[in-house]
Design brief:
This is Chitosanase. The protein is built from 10 helices and 5 strands; from the N terminus they run ααβββααααααααββ. The chain is mostly helical and about 260 residues long. The protein is globular and about 50 Å long.
Length: about 260
């Protein structure tokens, strides 16, 4: 049967749509349970020098980065507001908890590196709270709301797979998504000056290289973050290998330490 030019064009368009849909359906997304756990392990390797992220609910220390206390599974900070939001959520879930009395102090130190009103017992009480399943659940909820879900949502919108979504997630964890020049949104905006994401017709590898370049620039703006191995000897290694779906085994280095997920 002879097919007209118009019908042939329509069939080609339909075939292209089917191919695109199939590719999208088969693409690995970071919110798949196993990949989400892998993402947490990778972040923990950089934040806590351990793959055991579930052991970090009770972690708390001042790492002298100007953000006060850094704590928990994702590095909630007393100086950046996310720790305050977390403790307020914990109060709503479990009134009278051991951290509730620190809320006035957390409000006062927000935006500073101060420990005023928190010392000397805040770190001890944090570790006590970390044994409570309600506090663990609150940490996971805030991690998802503030960091993980926005990163995955933007990654999907940009047409990048698990690796790209992880690159976004790690950037939001370290830099937040406020209005300063090193925030996630401004890192992405800087990358847009060099390349386009797949959703805008760009090549995924080229786009992620541009994003990682912008991220390296942002890291080097702060002395506390000038070590960029979490990008160069981890994310960039997987990108060069074309491992867009974060397929295991994964091997990488952070701060000179080697890690493997099989």
């Amino acid at each position: 049967m002879k097919i007209s030019g118009r019908l042939a064009a329509a069939l080609l368009t339909c075939a292209a749509l089917i191919t695109t849909t199939a590719t999208t359906a088969s693409a690995a997304n970071l919110d798949e349970p196993r990949l989400k756990d892998i993402a947490m392990q990778i972040v923990s390797s950089a934040e806590n020098s351990s793959l055991d992220w579930k052991a970090q609910f009770g972690y708390i220390e001042d790492i002298k980065d100007g953000r006060g206390y850094t704590a928990g599974i994702i590095g909630f900070c007393s100086g950046t507001g996310d720790m305050l939001d977390l403790v307020e959520l914990y109060k709503s879930k479990k009134p009278g908890n051991v951290l509730e009395k620190y809320l006035p102090a957390l409000r006062k130190v927000n935006g500073t590196a101060s420990h005023s009103g928190l010392d000397p017992n805040y770190t001890k009480d944090w570790k006590t709270a970390a044994k409570d399943s309600a506090f663990k659940a609150a940490q996971e909820s805030e991690r998802d709301r503030v960091y993980f879900n926005p990163a995955v949502k933007q990654g999907k919108a940009d047409g990048v797979r698990a690796l790209g979504q992880f690159a976004y997630y790690d950037a939001i964890v370290v830099h937040g998504d406020g209005g300063d020049k090193t925030s996630f949104s401004n890192i992405r905006k800087r990358a847009l000056g060099k390349a386009k994401p797949p959703s805008q017709g760009g090549d995924e590898r080229t786009w992620l290289n541009a994003f990682m370049d912008a991220r390296v620039w942002a890291m080097k703006q702060e002395a506390a973050h000038e070590d960029v191995t979490r990008i160069e000897t981890a994310q960039r290694v997987w990108l060069k290998a074309g491992n867009f779906d974060l397929k295991t085994p994964l091997k990488w280095k952070v701060y000179g330490d080697s890690y493997t997920i099989n």
